[in-house]
Sequence to fold (155 residues):
Amino acid sequence: MSLLPLTLTPPEGSTAVVVGGGSVAERKVRALLAGGLQVWVVAPAITPGLQARVAAGRVRWLARSYTPGDLAQAWLACAATDARAVNRAVAAEARERGIWVNVVDCPTEGTVRFPAVHRAGDVVVAVSTLEGRPRRAQAVRDRIAAIFPLVVGEI
Fold:
C-alpha cells in the first residue's frame, strides 16, 4: 500500500459529517474545525467537549443514530463509532457518493487518513504512517514539535 500525502483546501462552506460522538469523534471534529469545515455530528450521545461546541454554535448535532443519506451534504465524512457495521456502512455510502472518508477502526477502508499535526504560526507539520499507526505518527510529531522552535528560528 502507498499513500499520497496532500494538504487539502476545502471549498468555502464545505461540510464534514462525523458519525460517532465519543472521544475519537471529538478529536476528528477539532481537526475538521481547524481546517475550516462546517461540522455535523451524527450520534445518539456526544462527549461534553462536543456538547460545548454544539452550545457555542460551532457544530451541528443530529442526536440520533446514523441512517443512509446522512452524507448527502458532505464534502468529507468520518466513521468514528465503536460499531464496525456502522463504520462500514458510512464508508460504503461515502464511496457511493464520491466523498472523502476516514474510517477510524479500519483505515484501509477509507480514502483519507488524518495525520498527527503540529501547527506553529503559518507552518503545519503532518506525520502519517503507511500502516495507519496513529501512536507512532504522534510520537514522531511530538519529537519534531520539540525541536520545532529551533528549526523555525533558523529559517
In short: The mean pLDDT is 90. Residues 116-154 form one domain. The first helix runs from residue 23 to 34.
